[in-house]
Structures are given as C-alpha cells and as structure tokens.
C-alpha cells in the first residue's frame, strides 16, 4: 500500500508538471545562498521565529514538530519531505522543492521505490531550474534504483535532448519503450531526438565541408601570393630574446618578414570587413589604404585589382568633386605623388601612378603590412611635400 501511495503521489505531481510549457527558471539558488533559502522554509526551521506566535500559528509549530521528530521511521520522514517537495513543485517553487527532495534522500530510508521517486522528482525540479546536468544525474540515480521506472527514463531523455546529446536521448527512449512500447511521451521524444540527431549530423557535415573548402581556398590564395613573389609583414609581439638582439629579426623592429605560409593575423578583415581574395579568373584583389599625412585623412579601397593602377582609383576619388578637407582644391590626380615605405630601412619609394599594383607589390622593398598595402599621397611641389620628404631617402620605382 505504501508503495502504491508513493506511485500515486508521483503520478499526480508529474501530471501537474505536464500542464506547464518548458521555460527557463532564472531565480535558482546556488551554493552561496542555499542555506539561507533553506532556513526560510517553515518545515526546516530549527527554531520558531520570534515574530511568529506559535499560539497564533499552530500549523507552523505542528509542521516543525512533525518534520523534526527524529523518533519517526526514516521512511515516514522521507515520505513527508517528498510530499512537501511536491507541494512546492506545484507552486513552481522549484528551488525549495529541490531542498525538500534532497532532505528526503538524506534520510537514507530502505524503501528503494521511494528513493527512486525522490530522485526522479528532484530531476524534474532541477530541469525547470535549468540545471540539466544535475537533473540527468538524478535520472541516472533513479534508474539504478528502479530500472523500469518510466518517469526516470523520460526525465533522462528530456535532459539529454536539452544537453544536445541526441544519441544518448535515443538510448533512454529505447530503454523506456522496451518496458512500455506504446508510451506516447517516449515515442514523441524518440521522434524528436532522432530528428535533432539527423539535423546535427547534417550540420556537422556541412561545417566540415565548409571548413575544407575554406582551407582549399586559403591554400590556393597563399600559393598565388607566393608565386607572385609578394612579401608579407605580420606584426609580432617582441620577445625577450629579440629585444636583447634586434639583429635577429633582420632589423624589422616589431615586424617579421613572412614567407607567405599562412594568413593568420595578416588580414584586415576584422578592422575593415575586407581581405585579399582570389577571383575565378585567378586575379588577386587587395584592400588598399591611401594616406594623406598633410590632412591626417585616409581613403580605403576594399577590392583593388592587382591589374589596375593607382591613377584609376585616384581619378575617381579626386574627380569632379574634391573632398571637403581639401580646402585649397589642389588634390587633382595630375598633381599627386605616391610613395610606399620600406619597413626595414624606412626609405620611401615613389610609385609611378600608371604602374599596375602587382608590379608595385613585387618590388624588392615593398612589403604588405597586415594584409593591406598602403601608400602615402602628397601634392607634388607643395610646401608640405618638400618638408615631409626632407631628410628622407627617396627612390623612384623602376
């Protein structure tokens, strides 16, 4: 009769739980406050609060007397705690329900079925608190105590689905359906788990294929850069060894010359949304930065074809409408000079505006910094140009 009563109570709680849709519970207790929360539960109070008159609240005094009566058998105490937990559960007070079920398990009663129900009910409460791993552990414990306990198998399947362990969820469902082949909940869970498992496997295959494709494209890109003889620079953190002997990095200071073996850290995509790419015709397109030191301004070309010349882009940027910062109206394409800097020697190399980008990048002293070629733009013969170039070694690109 006692076992039947336990099953009926468990069934009632489970039926009540099924009325609610799944939702995250945000106000769960943790290891730092559980004792404080525990002490707020009337049935667990060791002493009656001073502001509560036992004569005025006889139910509280009676409840405390019943719960803390150690003379009662452990089974009876555990059953009372289970019933109290069920009441909290029905009120959606899941954290107090967990406390009640936990105290029931601490009684270590000899009733295996009752202990299985306590674990199963605590699994349900933990599930609603969002503690899926703890809920799954309780379902496992309940199954060990009572292998044919359908509710434990159901809880285990639900937790595995939430944890995205769809294969394990199917195993829980299969165990339950061997016991009760027509159980609709388990059938629905098995269908859902199978569908989710297939979707996850399909997504994994797609991700693998995408990664493989991207790897192939990167290898083709790197191979093309190497074949072109383009040199890359990657900003590196100075090591203690290199700071002691600057000659070890080839006098490149904080930069290291790269052989083009990888593009990690060489792309400007994170900062600008653009990166070098290879089109279907085998042409490289670079993100290019134009610097105007006289006015502290810049222009950015996200896809500069290696076959085009700087004059093509400057003619667009300084065409009929000049930028507002050019108050003297002197930035006309025919008035401009273009330079790149040798990051090793700090020398400037003047670029012929009619020279294709590829030829510039292939120059012995041209290095692509952080994946983005950059050029200094000056107004020919201007006072700023003369002052900027004074004291600098300037070479004309041949």
Automatic annotation (TrEMBL):
<dbReference type="InterPro" id="IPR019734">
    <property type="entry name" value="TPR_rpt"/>
</dbReference>
<protein>
    <recommendedName>
        <fullName>Cns1/TTC4 wheel domain-containing protein</fullName>
    </recommendedName>
</protein>
<feature type="region of interest" description="Disordered">
    <location>
        <begin position="196"/>
        <end position="220"/>
    </location>
</feature>
<feature type="domain" description="Cns1/TTC4 wheel">
    <location>
        <begin position="279"/>
        <end position="386"/>
    </location>
</feature>
<dbReference type="GO" id="GO:0051879">
    <property type="term" value="F:Hsp90 protein binding"/>
</dbReference>
<keyword id="KW-0677">Repeat</keyword>
<dbReference type="GO" id="GO:0005634">
    <property type="term" value="C:nucleus"/>
</dbReference>
<keyword id="KW-0802">TPR repeat</keyword>
<dbReference type="InterPro" id="IPR044059">
    <property type="entry name" value="Csn1/TTC4_wheel"/>
</dbReference>
<dbReference type="Pfam" id="PF18972">
    <property type="entry name" value="Wheel"/>
</dbReference>
<dbReference type="GO" id="GO:0005829">
    <property type="term" value="C:cytosol"/>
</dbReference>
<comment type="similarity">
    <text>Belongs to the TTC4 family.</text>
</comment>
<dbReference type="GO" id="GO:0030544">
    <property type="term" value="F:Hsp70 protein binding"/>
</dbReference>
<dbReference type="InterPro" id="IPR011990">
    <property type="entry name" value="TPR-like_helical_dom_sf"/>
</dbReference>
<dbReference type="GO" id="GO:0006457">
    <property type="term" value="P:protein folding"/>
</dbReference>
């Amino acid at each position: 009769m006692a076992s039947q009563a336990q099953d009926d109570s468990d069934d009632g709680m489970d039926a009540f739980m099924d009325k609610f849709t799944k939702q995250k519970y945000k106000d769960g207790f943790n290891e730092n406050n559980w004792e404080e929360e525990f002490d707020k539960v009337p049935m667990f109070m060791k002493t009656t609060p001073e502001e509560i008159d036992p004569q005025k609240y006889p139910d509280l005094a009676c409840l405390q007397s019943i719960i803390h009566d150690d003379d009662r058998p452990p089974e009876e105490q555990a059953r009372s705690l289970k019933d109290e937990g069920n009441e909290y559960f029905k009120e959606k007070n899941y954290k107090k329900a967990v406390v009640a079920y936990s105290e029931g398990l601490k009684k270590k009663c000899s009733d295996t079925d009752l202990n299985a129900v306590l674990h199963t009910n605590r699994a349900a409460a933990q599930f609603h608190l969002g503690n899926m791993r703890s809920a799954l552990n309780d379902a496992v414990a309940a199954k060990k105590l009572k292998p044919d306990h359908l509710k434990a198998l159901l809880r285990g399947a639900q937790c595995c689905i939430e944890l995205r362990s769809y294969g394990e969820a199917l195993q829980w469902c299969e165990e339950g359906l061997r016991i009760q082949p027509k159980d609709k909940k388990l059938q629905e869970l098995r269908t859902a788990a199978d569908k989710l498992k297939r979707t996850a496997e399909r997504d994994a295959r797609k991700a693998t294929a995408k990664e493989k494709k991207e790897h192939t494209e990167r290898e083709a890109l790197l191979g093309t850069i190497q074949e072109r003889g383009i040199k890359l620079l990657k900003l590196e953190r100075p090591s203690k060894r290199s700071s002691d002997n600057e000659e070890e990095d080839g006098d490149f200071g904080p930069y290291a010359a790269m052989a083009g073996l990888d593009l990690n850290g060489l792309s400007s995509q994170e900062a600008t949304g653009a990166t070098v790419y290879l089109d279907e015709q085998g042409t490289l397109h670079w993100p290019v930065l134009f610097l105007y030191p006289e006015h502290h301004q810049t222009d950015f070309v996200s896809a500069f074809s290696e076959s085009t010349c700087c004059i093509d882009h400057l003619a667009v940027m300084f065409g009929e409408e000049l930028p507002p910062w050019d108050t003297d109206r002197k930035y006309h394409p025919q008035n401009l000079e273009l330079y790149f800097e040798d990051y090793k020697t700090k020398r400037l190399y003047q670029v012929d505006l009619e020279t294709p980008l590829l030829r510039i990048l292939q120059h012995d002293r041209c290095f692509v910094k952080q994946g983005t070629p950059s050029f200094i733009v000056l107004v020919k013969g201007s006072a700023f140009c003369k002052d900027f170039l004074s004291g600098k070694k300037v070479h004309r690109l041949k």
